[in-house]
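Field reference: sequence -> structure
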Amino acid sequence: MTTTTPPVNGQVIGLAHYASRAVLETVLARTGTTFNQSVALRVVSEQDGTAERARLVARLSAALKIEESAARRTVDEMTALGLLAEPTADHVSLTEHGAELFERIRTAGNAIASRLYAGIPAEDLATAGRVLTLVTERADAELAGA
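Structure field:
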């Protein structure tokens, strides 16, 4: 019996996303970190360790497709856990603990990605990246018009 490669569609994309996320979730579970918190750590880290609270909430809401209130709760949880500090009323910054945790998650995530994408030709990855970026842009436009 020959298996044919299915065409790219939402189901194929979703299955790949959930499978790879499940692998990452095993790392997050060992650290006691939620997926939303890991995304927030990355966002703040990308901004040199300090972010405007409102902008962080907006980025979480947009990237994770969650309500703004859920994004605010995530930031509040992280402050309570000592992962983020509040140097001013409208900014948050990574604590030493938050930066160390992010580095552990980032390192483990990179190792996972390396294993999952091993052996896939660079041109195939580039094509997939272009297609998925376009699909994301179109879905975001649909959501904005809804």
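Note: The longest strand covers residues 84-88.
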